[in-house]
Write a structure and sequence with these properties.
14% helix, 166 residues, elongated, 1 helix, 6-stranded antiparallel sheet
Length: 166
């Protein structure tokens, strides 16, 4: 995320260049949600949070048979939908907050074509962030490395010469 355009005055937003959201991917096909391109909010130059949303669907055919039991077959249809909303400006001396809201629903269709909802959950809570500095470590210039090597070789040579003179 290039934050060079931030002025440090009021509420500002910039696009996230890279990021991942883990934690709301269960029972779906994704390991994480990609956050590249979402809005990052700053207030008075301080990072406050993100505004983004996402979702996923997973349809799976399940078939198994326990010993001595008739075969079991059904289709499992799972859906999640979620969003993170940031309120970057503190109101009435309360700190700014990012909130998570999520919805999960699962349907099961049996062999007879009868569909029933087997699970439905709503989730909400405060979001906490871990900012990771992804800037590359500076690499020394070849001239610097070469100069350092020559200096060490010269010191070693002087030490050896001094030792022979003594």
């Amino acid at each position: 995320m290039d934050n060079s355009s931030l002025t440090g005055i009021g509420v500002e937003e910039i696009a996230v260049s890279e990021g991942r959201f883990y934690g709301y991917t269960f029972r779906t096909s994704k390991e994480y949600q990609d956050l590249a391109g979402v809005k990052a909010f700053f207030y008075e130059g301080d990072f406050r949070g993100l505004n983004t949303s996402g979702g996923d669907d997973l349809i799976a055919e399940v078939s198994y048979q326990d010993p001595g039991e008739p075969p079991v077959w059904f289709i499992l249809d799972s859906r999640i939908s979620w969003f993170i909303e940031t309120f970057p400006v503190p109101y009435l001396d309360s700190p700014p907050v990012s909130a998570f809201f999520g919805y999960y629903e699962q349907y099961t269709t049996n062999r007879d074509g009868r569909t029933e909802r087997t699970d439905r959950n709503f989730y909400n809570g405060e979001v906490y962030y871990t900012l990771v500095d992804t800037e590359a470590e500076p690499v020394p210039e070849p001239l610097t490395v070469g100069g350092t090597t020559l200096a060490l070789a010269g010191l070693s040579w002087l030490k050896q010469k001094k030792k022979m003179a003594a």
